Each structure stands twice: as C-alpha cells, then as structure tokens.
From TrEMBL:
Signal peptide: none annotated. Belongs to the metallo-dependent hydrolases superfamily. Adenine deaminase family. Residues 79-362 form the Amidohydrolase-related domain. PANTHER family: ADENINE DEAMINASE YERA-RELATED, N-ACETYLGLUCOSAMINE-6-PHOSPHATE DEACETYLASE. It catalyses: adenine + H2O + H(+) = hypoxanthine + NH4(+). SUPFAM superfamilies: Composite domain of metallo-dependent hydrolases (SSF51338), Metallo-dependent hydrolases (SSF51556). Keywords: Hydrolase. It comes from the Bacteria. It holds the Pfam family Amidohydro_1. Residues 418-571 form the Adenine deaminase C-terminal domain. InterPro entries: Adenine_deam_C (IPR026912), Amidohydro-rel (IPR006680), Metal-dep_hydrolase_composite (IPR011059), Metal_Hydrolase (IPR032466). Its EC number is 3.5.4.2. This is adenine deaminase.
Length: 580
C-alpha cells in the first residue's frame, strides 16, 4: 500500500463540506451529546455530526439531510475524546494489531509506538509496508524513530544508518525521534546523534528522552540539544526538575514502574497543581498489567489523587495532542477531528461504555465489536521463525570465571563463579542456572551462569528478547536443549522443559517475538507462566521484562549482548561471544 500524503483526499474534503450543505447525510449523528469542550474547559451540550471517520460539525443545528444516517441519542452519557498512549511498546508478547484492538476497549484509540522491533527485524521497505498496512485499522497508529539499538549489535551502522534514519523521520506516521537511551553518547560528543536530532526538529517533530536519574544540569543540557519530553521521572522532585527545564513530563504507571500514585502525591506536596505540561503513559507494560485498563485507569488514579477532573482527562487527550502537534486531528471533540470518542456513564469513571474509533463502533453498550479482525499475516516477513540450524550438546560448555547476578527485574551485576559447572545438572540448593545467548541465525553463542533467576528451573528457552536472539536458562542441559527444540518446532516462543517433558509454552508466531493471538489469550498464558516461574524460584517483579532487558545497555551494570558480556559503565566487552 502506498503512503497517502494527506489524511483526506480532495474529494473526501469536498464531501465533508457537502454534508454541511445538506447534499450528503452524515453517517452518524450523536444527538443531545454532553461532551467535554477543551476550548471552554467545561462540559457542554451539542449535536455532533460524523461522516465516516471525521467529525464534520459540533453545535446546536441538526442536519438537513439524514437519509440513511445512524442516529444515537446521547442522553445519559458524557462524551470525551479517545485517549492517547504516547509511549507504547506494542511488542510485549502481544503485537501492534492485537494491542490496538485491546486498548480500544478501554477507550485508548490512538497509540504512538516504538519502532525498535520492526527496525531490527525487518528491512526498511517491509517495515514501512507493515506500518502503512496498520493505517487501515480503526485505531490511529503513529510511530517513533529510534536512533540506536539499545544494546551492542553486530550491524548497528547498517540498521541505524543516516539514510534509514532520514527515511523513518520523513514518514508521515512518525511523530518523534527517540526514545534517547543513547543520551550519554550524545553528551559525550556524538555529533551523528545530534545531527539526527537536528533533522527531527527541522521536520517539526519531537524528541523523546529517557533520562532516569538525570541531574538538573544534565536535563538542561539535553533540553538545549533538542529533547522535548521525558517519561523517567520517579519522584515528585524529578517532575519538578523537568518542568523547570521546559519539558513535557510523561507520568508513568507501568508493570515495572507503577509510579503514578506516588508521583501525584509528591507533586501535590511540593505545590505542583498545574497540569498542562503533563501527560500519561503505561510505557509498554506486559500483558497481565493491562487487565485493569490503560490510559483510562491512569485518569481514574489521577481523579482519586485530587487532580481536577477536566485536567485529568486533558492529560490523557488534549495535552498529548498539543505536544505532538496533532491537535487538528486528535485530543478534542470539535469540527475536523478524527471521530475517536468515548461514551462514559459518569465523569469519575473514565472506562467507556461505548467507543468510536475513526467513526466506527469498536465497543457498544459494554460489549466489544470484532471489527479489527485477526492478525493480517502478510508477506512482510512477519511470520513464524524458521530455524534451519541445530543446537548441539557440545554448545552447552561452561568455563567462564564470572557470571551474571540478577539483582532485581532488570539490574545485572557480575559475580565470581565458585560452583562446579562441569556436569549436566546444577543443584537446586542455590539460584544459579546455566545461561546461553545464541544468535538467531546460529552463528555465535555466549555461555555463562545466571544467578537470581530461578532455583528449580530445569530448562527454559525464549526467542523473545531485545534483539530476537535466543535465550536458554536452566539447571539441566538436556532440558534446555529440549526447550530449545520445542521453541524451534512451534516457530518461536517461550518454552519450558521439566524432566524431559514440555510443561509450559507461549507460541510467538510473529518473528518469534509476538503472539498472533488476542491480548486476552496472551494475558492468560503470561499469568500461567509467571506463576510457574514463581514456584520455580523467580522472585522478581516481571520475568518478561527480565528477558527483554538482559541485553539492554541503557541499564547498569553488565549486559549480555551480540558482541559479548558488556560493561555498561566502562563501555567495554568483558568476554566476547564465541563463533559456532
């Protein structure tokens, strides 16, 4: 599908005007609607005319022509704009299509998505074909442009070349550069990253930061270099420092950082009671976290914590649209906007009873309407893995003097190995496991011990990782091999072998990193796996994020990467990968 340069073609725009002239009927009329008007910052009453995916009129008049028009009397409802998730990572076992469908049931009808997985897994042509294909679903899908892989990979200069970055930034669906996990390199003088930031700003697009723990002076420097927003505030003082330096601050409530309640409490304690520069994000949470909702749940928390109701809704709608310069399309109910509208039973309950996305009902009277369909398997490389190589017992040889200690869900430190690793089985009296990172093409491997992941886990294999390379963990080498071959058989996924028998699996049939099932199904599978791992000694917050961040070099202290065990603080390879 070719990229459409303008949202609506000239003929469509003429048709929109013809509805006002009475020559065409609206496709949907929302009568007697009490809705949130952002211009006046109050609830107002009007009739809302919709023609296909666009609001063509909001006011006191009724259409002269209503032939074939669907009419809904909105008495008893409150209408607010569709919610916007500005920082989605739509590849956390679910896929962008299924995630958009699920999010719409909670009123989040616009997603601004990380492009990392498709940038790493697909060439540019296929990646653009994929995101263009997603423009046809009811949700509004936008994207970021990453500037680095967030890990040490072999071909980074090819994937993140200037020509690729420029092409991504020029795409109409891309709204921002970042997130800037590479900011230490930027501050150290990397002019290529600075050039890409300059290009982003020249195109009137935003730069999203990733600045955990940044000092006031560091935040000021990064603002001078082009950053616009940051989602890494962990305290009320962090929010204050970012607002002082001119940032839009994205308040986070995610599976590994459920910070929003304490952030709001601390903000109010230090006198922050103006909300125009604040927005919400769930920051790519793992599936089960979303059972409680999405942006709607964050709005609910904000209201409970004393944020004025209209401000709470603005933080999930209008503030986001204004930040990204898409107010002409999103964030409010007004003439010309895309018809993303949530119907509420009460102003203090942001979870909608009914939802319109691009003028189509995706939820009505509390019931989901299946108009997204199933995953559109295409020829764009978004298929099950085909692993055409063998993993052998001889690959599971361990002689490294130090291993990786998992301090919590995402923080890794080196430690000295003191146990005997020459056999096939490790004791269950400690929490050390065999660990292997192996190239998805079978060219290299990295073997060490992982401490702190489990005590009684026989064999575990995962194609879900930051780079799509394969992770093997376990106490028993034969079960690790068995889990790997089951993962291979099902075309990618997460598998567990216990005493020679497969006991857990989550098939990830889209490139080995995403499920083709709906989010509800993935949630149930994730909960079962999480419970199983907990029984086997996993004691941290989120095993899915543990897998994802094993190679993520924006976190301290050591990481396992395609180039080897990497010392993040000193930017050196401590132990290289071994060619097979």
């Amino acid at each position: 599908m070719l990229e459409q340069r303008y949202k609506w073609k000239n003929k469509q725009l003429r048709n929109h005007v013809s509805v006002l002239d009475g020559n065409l009927a609206p496709t949907l009329l929302l009568k007697n609607a009490r809705y949130l008007n952002h211009a006046f910052r109050k609830w107002m009453k009007a009739h809302i005319w919709i023609f296909h995916d666009r609001i063509v009129y909001v006011g006191d008049q009724l259409p002269a022509n209503m032939d074939g028009c669907e009419i809904m009397d909105c008495e008893g409802y409150l209408l607010v704009p569709g919610y916007i998730e500005p920082h989605a990572h739509p590849f956390q076992l679910y896929n962008p299509h299924s995630f958009a469908s699920y999010a719409s049931q909670f009123g989040t009808t616009t997603l601004i998505n990380d492009n990392m997985v498709i940038a790493l897994q697909l060439d540019k042509k296929r990646a653009f074909s994929f995101i263009n294909e997603l423009q046809s679903i009811p949700s509004s899908m936008y994207w970021w442009c990453r500037f680095d892989a967030q890990t040490e990979i072999h071909n980074e200069e090819m994937i993140f070349s200037s020509s690729n970055i420029k092409s991504w930034l020029e795409h109409d669906a891309v709204l921002q550069g970042g997130e800037l996990t590479c900011w230490p390199k930027l501050l150290a003088g990397d002019d290529l990253i600075l050039h890409w930031i300059q290009e982003t700003k020249r195109m009137r697009k935003k730069i999203e930061g990733h600045f955990p723990g940044a000092s006031e002076k560091t935040l000021a420097k990064l603002m001078l270099l082009g950053a616009d927003c940051d989602h890494e505030a962990m305290t009320g003082k962090d929010v204050y420092n970012r607002l002082m330096q001119g940032y839009t601050v994205s308040l986070r409530y995610s599976s590994i950082r459920p910070d929003l309640p304490i952030l709001l409490e601390e903000m109010h304690e230090i006198g922050i009671n103006h909300y125009d520069q604040l927005i919400f994000t769930t920051d790519g949470s793992t599936p089960a976290f979303y059972e409680q909702g999405m942006i709607d749940h964050m709005i609910r928390i904000a209201i409970e914590k004393g944020v004025p109701i209209i401000d709470a809704y603005n933080m999930g709608t209008n503030n986001v649209a204004r930040h990204y310069n898409i107010e002409h399309l999103h964030g409010n109910i007004a003439t010309g906007r895309i018809a993303n509208i949530n119907f509420l039973s009460d102003e203090t309950n942001p979870t909608p009873v009914s939802v319109l996305a691009k003028g189509k009902w995706v939820k009505k009277d509390g019931a989901p309407l299946d108009i997204y369909g199933s995953w559109p398997m295409s020829e764009d490389g978004l298929k099950p893995l085909q692993i055409d190589w063998q993993l052998e017992y001889d690959d599971l040889q361990y002689s490294m003097p130090f291993g990786i200690n998992m301090e919590n869900t995402v923080i890794l430190k080196p430690y000295s190995i003191s146990i005997d690793v020459s056999g096939d089985q490790l004791s269950t009296l400690h929490d050390e496991c065999f660990f292997m990172l192996v190239d998805k093409h079978g060219k290299w491997r990295l073997n060490t011990l992982l401490k702190g992941f489990a005590t009684h886990l026989d064999g575990f294999a995962s194609s879900f990782s930051n780079t799509g390379d394969f992770i093997l963990i376990g106490k028993n080498k034969h079960d690790m091999l068995n889990a790997f071959y089951r993962m291979k058989e099902i075309g990618g996924g997460i598998t567990v072998s216990e005493k020679g028998r497969i006991v857990q699996e989550i098939p990830l049939k889209i490139m080995g990193v995403m499920s083709d099932e709906n989010v509800e199904s993935v949630i149930e599978k994730e909960k079962v796996l999480r419970h199983y791992l907990s029984e086997r000694g996993y004691k941290h917050a989120d095993p899915i994020y543990s897998l994802l961040f094993l190679s993520s070099t924006h976190l301290p202290y050591v990481r396992v990467t395609q180039q080897g065990i990497y010392d993040v603080m000193n930017k050196t390879i401590l132990f290289p990968t071994i060619m097979r």
